[in-house]
Design brief:
The chain has two domains: 5-46; 60-100, no CATH class. 52% of the residues lie in helices and 15% in strands. The chain is built from four helices and three strands, in the order H-H-H-E-E-E-H. Strand 2 and strand 3 (73-78) form a beta hairpin.
Amino acid sequence: MTYSKEEKAMWLEDWRQSGKSAWTYAKENGLIPQTFVTWAKKYTKEKSGFVEIKPERKPKLNASGIVIEKGDLKIHLPFGISSNDLSAVIESLEFSVRRASI
């Protein structure tokens, strides 16, 4: 059976509110579990709140890590940077951007 976008949205919203796994929900509601899991993955990805940002050009790689350049700004990130250190870099950049716009 083929479902419209509206029907899929209705099933997915009902599933989200059910708190059940996608597989269980599909079986209980007469849907094909494999198909419903595919819908759920796409739905979850769309609702994640993350936005992919594609760089204008690829970052440069050098012997010690990655260099991101934007105008006169250069950010050097060493290979193996920890997630905590990367978070600190991003927070610093966000602070700088907010401060510059005041």
